[in-house]
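User: Here's a structure from my thesis project, written as structure tokens. My advisor, Dr. K., wants to see whether a designed sequence matches the one we expressed. Can you design one independently, without my sequence as a hint?
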């Protein structure tokens, strides 16, 4: 959430000259996002994340030998449960 706030502040500073006003805009944005999410953590994917995950998952599936969950997890910075889910669900 801090990254979103920092980016919102930067955008607001580009629009208005006042540091205080840009901080108010950033704080208001964060507050509204939290309300919309009902207090739950918010994840905003980076552009291209979906395509990147599809490519990564295809690589994982092609390298899967039947019992190398831990090794694939280390290679792709995921835990074995995530690797298992990718293999089983085709995610």
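Assistant: Designed independently from the structure alone:
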């Amino acid at each position: 959430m801090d990254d979103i706030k920092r980016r919102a502040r930067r955008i607001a500073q580009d629009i208005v000259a006042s540091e205080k006003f840009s901080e108010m805009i950033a704080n208001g944005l964060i507050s509204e996002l939290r309300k919309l999410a009902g207090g739950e953590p918010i994840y905003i994917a980076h552009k291209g994340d979906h395509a990147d995950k599809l490519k990564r998952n295809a690589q994982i599936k092609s390298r899967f030998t039947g019992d190398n969950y831990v090794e694939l997890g280390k290679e792709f910075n995921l835990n074995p449960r995530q690797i298992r889910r990718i293999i089983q669900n085709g995610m």
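When you compare it with your expressed construct, this may help: Residues 69 and 81 are 8 Å apart (CA to CA).
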